[in-house]
Amino acid sequence: MAVPRKRLESMGDHLNSVRHVLLVLSGKGGVGKSTVATQLALGLKHAGNKVGLLDVDLCGPSVPKMFGVEGMDIHQSPEGWLPVYVNSDQGLGVMSIGFLLEDREDAVVWRGPKKNAMIKQFLSDVVWRDLDYLVIDTPPGTSDEHITVIESLKSYCPDGALLVTTPQGVAIGDVRRELTFCRKVGIPVLGIVENMSGFACPCCGEITNIFSKGGGEALAKQAHVPFLGCIPLDPTLAQASEEGKDFQTLFKESVTFAALTKVLDKLRAVDKDF
């Protein structure tokens, strides 16, 4: 069983200084939710904002690797935990249970109450310090952890949730259940993103529909929520994530960068305050 290296007593309320909170949800695993969350955080940062990314996917903490900060130590101030900053200007901070494990290969074999306690501690004890945006990468599904996140954030009136799906019918069905979850707990749905929507050739940029296409947009129309766009399956994006590099800086001319930019633009159009 994995045991965190450090535990702190509750240090107070650090979310009051966060202007906008966005949840990234998916009905099932493997749809690229963490990839979308990291690229959303990078896009907001490159737009001149101060951004935090909180990874509460306790059993699959992939965010540290995607930012190239695996193995970094968490430091603490008198107020609480300090996030790990991705760059020297401290414009993008990350917090994940991946930083708290003795061995990154350890499995987090915890029952619900312990997971919920860890999530509450992440939400209360991380010192974000005047963030413009906090992006929260959640576990797949509609589990106990999601309820803990929602209940802990209710008093802060989060902007809403971005739902990630792939084009296949199985994934679409799970996202439909995620929509129902959001409505039951009172979280606004800002929109749906269809990830892995076609294959982007790294040489010519042509998009080939390996799977199906359009399922996310059809679901958005059916559910009367905004469709934010399609992100293709791109080997350069996958490689950048594996190597912890900034895809949006390295591949500004790619069709995938253009797709990510459109998603962010549509998200801003949906929520004028966002």
What would you say this structure looks like, in words?
The chain has 274 residues and is α/β, with parallel strands linked by helices. The chain has a single domain, classed as P-loop containing nucleotide triphosphate hydrolases (Rossmann fold), CATH 3.40.50.300. The chain has 9 helices and 11 strands. It has helices at 33-46, 63-66, 112-125, 144-153, 169-185, 215-223, 235-243, 247-250, 255-270; strands at 20-26, 51-55, 75-77, 80-82, 84-85, 92-96, 133-137, 160-165, 189-200, 207-208, 227-233. The strands form 2 sheets. Strands 1, 2, 5, 6, 7, 8, 9, 10 and 11 form a 9-stranded mixed beta sheet that branches. A hairpin with a 6-residue loop joins β5 (84-85) and β6. α3 (112-125) packs parallel to α4 (144-153) and α5 (169-185) runs parallel beside α6 (215-223). The radius of gyration is 18 Å and the shape is globular. It starts with 19 loop residues before the first strand and ends with a helix.
Which range does the strand content fall in?
A: 15-25%
Largest beta-sheet details:
9 strands, mixed
CATH-derived topology: Rossmann fold
Number of domains: 1
Notable traits:
274 residues, alpha/beta, Rossmann fold, nine-stranded mixed sheet, two-stranded antiparallel sheet, 9 helices, 11 strands, 21% strand
Secondary-structure blueprint of this entry?
Blueprint lengths: L19 E7 L6 H14 L4 E5 L7 H4 L8 E3 L2 E3 L1 E2 L6 E5 L15 H14 L7 E5 L6 H10 L6 E6 L3 H17 L3 E12 L6 E2 L6 H9 L3 E7 L1 H9 L3 H4 L4 H16 L4
Parallel strand pairs: 1-7, 1-8, 2-6, 2-7, 8-9, 9-11
Antiparallel strand pairs: 3-4, 5-6, 9-10
